[in-house]
Amino acid sequence: MKIFLKKIRTILQINTLRIVSISSFTSSFYYFLISSSFRREHLAIIKGRLKYHKQNEVEKEAFYLLRRNIHRLEKGLIMKERRAVFALDYIEETVEAYIKVITGSLESVSRKNIKWYSDVLTNYFEVVDSSNEKLRKLKTLFEKHIVNTGYENASIPYQRDFSILNVNYDDFYKLCKLRRSVRWYENKPVPRELIDKAISAAALSPSACNRQPFEFRVFDDKALVQEVANVSWGTLGFSHNFPAIIVVIGKLEAYFDERDRHVIYIDGALASMSFMYALETLGLSSCPINWPDVKKFENQMEALLGLEKNERPVMLIALGYPDKQALVPFSEKKDLFEIRSYNKVKD
């Protein structure tokens, strides 16, 4: 009887989905009246946009706006045929954001980032046409507030030094083969300095407009590790041996528009992959744990970590010294032809 009812339910679901898939309007109607699956995401996006604008206009922080615009200036500075005047549409708000940040509380902003903001703006005003009245006024305003960080070894666009690379493809491929999702660990603590090293490497991962809208929330207290690990289906049967666990949190306050709502997952995943590779070079291993959008778990994690509505868990990562005698799943990966195509377009 249960199997029969399950089949009937599946048929009804398929027919319903077939009907509401006719257009974007009918699909929106489905998620408005029938399914509440996206309501937490909708709220998180709205809360993130609100906080973004509140930071810029009310709290005078302008952190994410400044990071985005400084990176936009860098992209203009590296152009091979650079225009004499560029960024006119956003340079004023960039200078205003810089002043907000450096005249506000600097405790939450690192010196190296203050240097980056200062150096790129200095470089920009050095190379653009100073005969432009708007740029001349903004340069004067910027120079009144500039933080003197020392212009030696300036944090501005540069040519890469390829001589520092001593890792070849075979070495990297071996690292990729070695890294597996490890579920069994030795019963010993993980030094925080090693975790911090891996996170420092992760911080070098690419991020859209260099906003880095994520946080690595690390737990190494045994009781807290268990509490965090158990807020998920994916850890049953082995979470008791986790020496440490990380919750990667995405911050939607980094974006002014819904179009970027997926970037917390993209940037968070890019950084997490670098982090897991770095762990292997330090004698540690890890297990990324899927975080499905389940209301019960979302509410539990939000309450446990004290997350704001615009903060969304991206994934969990267990880590520690691997039990080298334990098995790991073979997990055969797709073949190259299954995941790669060249110049593929619609016929």
Quaternary structure: single chain
Number of strands: 4
CA-atom Rg in angstroms: 24 Å
Helix content: 40-55%
Low-pLDDT residue spans? none
Number of helices: 13
Q: What is the count of structural domains?
A: 2
CATH class of the largest domain: Alpha Beta
- In terms of DSSP E residues, the strand content is 5-15%
- Quick one: biggest sheet? 4 strands, antiparallel
State the CATH superfamily name of the largest domain: NADH Oxidase
* Shape summary: globular
Q: Give the rounded overall mean pLDDT.
A: 93
Order of neighbouring strands in the sheet with most strands? 1-2-4-3
Topology, please?
Elements: H1 2-20, H2 24-33, H3 39-57, H4 63-77, H5 91-103, H6 111-127, H7 133-145, H8 169-178, H9 192-202, E1 214-219, H10 222-229, E2 244-251, H11 263-281, E3 285-289, H12 295-305, E4 311-320, H13 336-339
Antiparallel strand pairs: 1-2, 2-4, 3-4
